[in-house]
Specification:
- The protein has 382 residues and is α+β, with helices and mostly antiparallel strands.
- It contains eleven helices and 16 strands.
- It has helices spanning 4-11, 39-52, 66-81, 123-131, 176-209, 220-229, 232-235, 250-282, 290-298, 345-355, 365-370; strands at residues 21-27, 89-95, 100-106, 113-117, 135-140, 144-151, 154-162, 214-217, 238-242, 286-288, 302-308, 315-318, 324-325, 339-342, 359-363, 376-380.
- α2 (39-52) runs antiparallel to α3 and α5 (176-209) crosses α6.
């Protein structure tokens, strides 16, 4: 599974002063005709060629010369020649000068792109995470259950539980009513024990993988008993139900679950943005707009930076104190140092927030519309 821990590890990568990282995002979905017969390799080659045309000679800039860029591209292309597509997207970060290689297969499409920068370009990966928060899936009937997890890398089965539940047999004779009732009670008790086993297993998985959403599927009778056996903390993170049978394929499950997940995420995002805007208007631990957000980042106050998915911003970064600014000028207003262009301002701001153990939330749909006036804001620690 891909998580914010992966982002933090990438963000903490210590490169040499003059080393560069090649970041690549590419769609490899084999249901897309353009990707068949290794078509995705041609796409990558064209991307590298176009970017290479803009590279300077090796002696022109510490941000890497044409020769180093071409060497890095060749490393990635050699990998792709022997690569078997899995899923729908692929992300690679490569720095051969440090023998660094980070690659993940994704079960979802990504925004394609290439960057040649001193640090990994993580914003598209952040967007993928925000669209595909990890969540648990429980399919259960009276004696069989599957517990799965789904995230940007796809779906994985975590556990399968089969319990011995006696059937309800009809009886005859003078003790018919008593024995039939006893069998029904015994049958129900076994179903409840089965549900308790599944609930205990789910609790372990939720705690181990830090899941915050659960989707339930199965017959109403079995799911009702199962939910009643869940501790309240798990009942509170159930976000919806699906109609898929217990033996449903991963593809069918993902199709049904994405709709539930998207609805839940939009609701969560809207609540977050509404609360942030209200707090910012009151001056209570929230700010709106790029200037105030950057100021809060420099003060180490940001608990969660919230960005509309289509929002973009450019600015400068001080070469000395590394402060991020949006206003123009030749000198840093903090230390007087020289300013350098930061066309990837939001990416750099995201790194700083993660450095401070904060979170970056990218929102879309109704939540992004609520942010249309500013595009960005932050919930503050103090």
């Amino acid at each position: 599974m891909i998580s914010y821990d992966d982002i933090r590890q990438l963000q903490q990568y210590q490169s040499d002063p003059d080393s560069m990282i090649l970041s690549l995002y590419i769609n490899i979905d084999q249901s897309n005709a353009a990707n068949l017969n290794r078509g995705f390799e041609t796409v990558v080659e064209n991307e590298f060629r176009q970017m290479g045309e803009g590279q300077k000679s090796d002696n022109d800039s510490k941000e890497g010369g044409k020769q180093r860029f071409e060497t890095e591209c060749e490393r990635v292309l050699q990998f792709l020649k022997g690569y078997t597509p899995r899923g729908r997207g692929l992300v690679i970060f490569s720095d051969s000068s440090r023998d660094f290689w980070w690659q993940r297969d994704l079960g979802v499409e990504v925004s394609p792109g290439v960057r040649w920068t001193p640090r990994p370009w993580v914003r598209p990966l952040l967007e993928v995470l925000e669209r595909n928060d990890p969540f648990g899936v429980v399919l259960i009937d009276k004696q069989h259950a599957r517990i799965l997890t789904a995230d940007a890398s796809g779906m994985q089965q975590q556990a399968e539980i089969v319990s011995d539940v006696p059937a309800k047999h009809a009886t005859t004779g003078s003790d018919h009513l008593w024995s039939q009732g006893q069998m029904e009670r015994d049958h129900t008790n076994h179903i409840r024990l089965h549900a308790k086993r599944v609930a205990d297993e789910l609790a372990d998985i939720v705690d181990r993988l830090k899941l915050t959403r659960i989707v339930i599927g199965g017959p109403v009778a079995a799911t009702s008993i199962f939910i009643s056996e869940l501790p309240k903390r798990l009942q509170q993170i159930i976000v919806g139900t699906v109609s898929a049978p217990i033996d449903a394929s991963h593809e069918r499950l993902l199709g049904e679950i994405r709709e539930v997940q998207q609805r839940a995420e939009h609701e969560d995002e809207s609540r977050l943005v509404e609360a942030m805007i209200t707090s910012a208007m009151k001056g209570d631990r929230a700010v709106l707009g790029i200037s105030d957000t950057l100021a809060a980042i420099e003060q180490g106050r940001v608990h969660c930076m919230v960005i509309a998915r289509d929002y973009r911003a450019v600015g400068e970064q001080c070469a000395s104190c590394r402060v991020l600014l949006v206003e123009g000028g030749d000198q840093c207003s903090f230390c007087g140092g020289k300013l350098e262009a930061a066309p990837d301002l939001i990416n750099r701001a995201s790194y700083k927030v993660l450095d401070q153990a904060g979170k970056v939330q990218i929102v879309s749909g109704p939540a992004a519309e609520k942010l249309s006036g500013t595009g960005i804001g932050a919930v503050l620690r103090f």
